[in-house]
Design brief:
The protein has 173 residues and is α+β, with helices and mostly antiparallel strands. 24% of the residues lie in helices and 26% in strands. It is built from four helices and nine strands, in the order βαβββαβαββββα. The strands form two sheets. It has a seven-stranded mixed sheet with strand order 1-9-8-7-2-5-6, sandwiched between helices. A two-stranded antiparallel ribbon has the order 3-4. Strand 5 (61-66), helix 3 (72-79) and strand 6 (89-93) form a beta-alpha-beta unit.
Amino acid sequence: MWELILHSHHHQRLLRDVIPSAKKFVWIATADLKDMHVLAQKGKYRPFLAVLAELVSEGVEVRLIHAKEPGPRFRRDFDKYPELRTDRFERLLCPRMHMKAVIVDGQTAYLGSANFTGAGLGPKSDHRRNFEAGFLTTERPVIREIMEEYDRVFLGNACTKCQLRKVCPDPIA
């Protein structure tokens, strides 16, 4: 099954329906990471980090790879969730990361153009957001390939040939 999701539907499908349904793990890759909020209920918003904190509290493992250090608002929100300072939440900074992907329980995957920012995946108004496109899939062979590429980076297998090693804040290998 494939589902095309365009910019105005990323927030609802991926952030409200798919990610919160995780039972085992959520893997996220993004180039840019900001203090993004998601629709909670009746027009109220909450930090996306609150969603991740709830998942981690329920035993879900979360991996997050991003290309640059997020800003002070993200750090402030991150510090509000002690649940994220556990071995079930792993965060990796990789200056070469440009992939935008989400894998949930190895059963559903998103691959697209949107970063984890308000203008990318977040709930900005249609007049202030980026034009994004991506797809959700439950096709196991596709998900397996996305997971293999994600793992290659997360486990440091891409580090040995990376020419940004001198500027990498935390080389894995």
